[in-house]
């Protein structure tokens, strides 16, 4: 068990070395375009998701998460966080896994916050445990999901081939928009 913890921590640290907010104005504009496109794709491919945009306090959009694994896996993605329609900051997600995992893939993720408390928890470097992410997040087109601990997660796989029966978790970091500019 101790080896598992060390390997998961190492994978998360290696992947987690990436910055939360894009460094340049050009990269921020590129991320903004990716977020706009991801929202459009989710609205097109996920019937009923408009309800979450209308009723949630806010949401985080990660337009491209890259995941790879060969027994030990890691993933990283960067996105934007909104309160209603106003962007309030940037977020990044790192993931570490261990288990029967081989391959690579790209996916998009949106996390909706049911209330202000859920948004605040996310902003304070939130961690999805393996159990929470397995229950809250399901790959593919989703027509209905429920909030769990104030959050609802939608994932769409874009490309790749991955065999995955592993354990792990996702860690999110948040940076307010005013600290970037």
Written description of the protein model:
The chain has helices at residues 2-15, 25-45, 49-55, 116-123, 130-136, and strands spanning 58-83, 86-113, 127-128, 151-176. It has 181 residues and is an alpha+beta fold. The protein has one domain. The chain has a four-stranded antiparallel beta sheet with strand order 1-2-4-3. It is globular.
Mean pLDDT across the residues is 78
Given as residue ranges, the uncertain stretches (5+ residues, pLDDT < 50) are: 1-17, 130-144
Q: Categorize the overall geometry.
A: globular
Cα-based radius of gyration, to the nearest Å:
16 Å
Helix content: 25-40%
Write the layout of secondary structure elements.
Elements: H1 2-15, H2 25-45, H3 49-55, E1 58-83, E2 86-113, H4 116-123, E3 127-128, H5 130-136, E4 151-176
Antiparallel strand pairs: 1-2, 2-4, 3-4
Please tag this protein with its features.
181 residues, 31% helix, 4-stranded antiparallel sheet, alpha+beta
Summarize the structure.
With 181 residues, this protein is an alpha+beta fold. It contains five helices and four strands.
């Amino acid at each position: 068990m101790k080896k598992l913890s060390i390997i998961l921590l190492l994978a998360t640290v290696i992947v987690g070395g990436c910055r939360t907010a894009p460094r340049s104005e050009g990269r921020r504009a590129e991320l903004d375009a990716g977020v706009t496109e991801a929202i459009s794709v989710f609205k097109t491919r996920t019937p009923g998701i408009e309800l979450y945009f209308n009723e949630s306090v806010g949401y985080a959009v990660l337009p491209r998460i890259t995941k790879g694994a060969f027994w030990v896996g890691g993933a990283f993605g960067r996105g934007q966080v909104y309160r209603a329609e106003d962007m309030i900051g940037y977020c990044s997600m790192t993931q570490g896994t261990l288990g029967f995992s081989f391959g690579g893939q790209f996916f998009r993720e949106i996390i909706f916050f049911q209330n202000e408390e859920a948004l605040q928890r996310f902003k304070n470097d939130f961690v999805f445990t393996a159990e929470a992410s397995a229950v809250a997040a399901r790959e593919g087109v989703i027509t209905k999901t429920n909030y769990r601990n104030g959050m609802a997660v939608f994932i769409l796989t874009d490309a790749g081939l991955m065999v995955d029966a592993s354990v792990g978790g996702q860690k999110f970091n948040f940076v307010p928009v005013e600290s970037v500019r």
